[in-house]
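Reminder: ligand-aware prediction takes two inputs, not one.
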Amino acid sequence: MARLAGRVAIVTGGARGIGRHYSQALAAEGARVMIADVADGSDLANELSNTYGANSVASQVTDISNEQAVKALVGATIERFGKVDVLVNNAALYSSLKEQKFQDIDVEVWDQVMSVNLRGTFLMCKHVVPHMIAQNYGKIINIGSGTPTRGVPWLLHYTTTKGGVIGMTRAMSRELGGHGIRVNTLSPGFTMSDSNINNNPGHVQTARSRCVRSNAMRRRRIWSGRWCSSPRARATSSPARISRWMAARRICDQRRLNSQHDVRTQTLAKAFSPSSERVDLRRR
Ligand SMILES: NC(=O)c1ccc[n+]([C@@H]2O[C@H](COP(=O)([O-])OP(=O)(O)OC[C@H]3O[C@@H](n4cnc5c(N)ncnc54)[C@H](O)[C@@H]3O)[C@@H](O)[C@H]2O)c1
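Here is what comes back for the chain with nicotinamide-adenine-dinucleotide:
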């Protein structure tokens, strides 16, 4: 029997991007799925219904930042499937956002990102949770991101909301655990979802090079991967003195490695010598 047979799931942002794969995977595991997205998910719903059984997947165009729309969505899900067991809060403004310095972010764009990514997630929980409490069962999966923990730059509005999602999840899980409702965050790494590729061509390149360049503290790296942080190194200022100091360090390190190598070679030779030889050695 499929693992989620008899369960009902709502997937926000489930019509495209990564959310499309969540909808497909849940349907494949036997769940009945409601796809909620600002984009029309009816083609996907029909495709999945044809594959996994009629009446198994539905869709409703929904803006999760709008409370009336969220209420209507939850009502439609209850009417169609009778309950809600699983909520995947995946919808977010992400791939359509352009990377920019935070000083250049318009206040309207900031508010829009907050209203979808945070208010939308909150509203979905607010209107689904009473049904979960009534049945003393529920799973809420809030889609986070690694951006707040890594401090990914050029998307401050987005990164801030994903940090908020993590906080919301932790606090909500404590409020709802007693009702048999589990709340967790799932934080994917950078993913080349179809919407990411279409909306942000070249995103991988820019994200990679910007992250490397944006170390909070630029420190000078020297040979052999050490940070140039010793008091002696800081005291040296002229390039000639630095290179003399580096040459001296290189010689010292090489000598140390050579002597360690000798000791290690002798120890290994002893360890792997035939036991008769070792006995002989001990006797001598
Ligand atoms: N792609 C990545 O590298 C990556 C990494 C970490 C986390 N994530 C997260 O995964 C999720 C999906 O990302 P994606 O790459 O598919 O990007 P995406 O921007 O395509 O996904 C967002 C989905 O939400 C929908 N949506 C947007 N505004 C909405 C609204 N107001 N109401 C309802 N639906 C709305 C979009 O139509 C889309 O289907 C997002 O929460 C994103 O933050 C993505």
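Residues 12-13, 15-19, 37-39, 62-65, 90-96, 116, 120, 143, 145, 188, 190-191, 193, 195-196 surround nicotinamide-adenine-dinucleotide (CB under 6 Å). The CA atoms of residues 104 and 277 lie 76 Å apart. We will return to this case in the review session.
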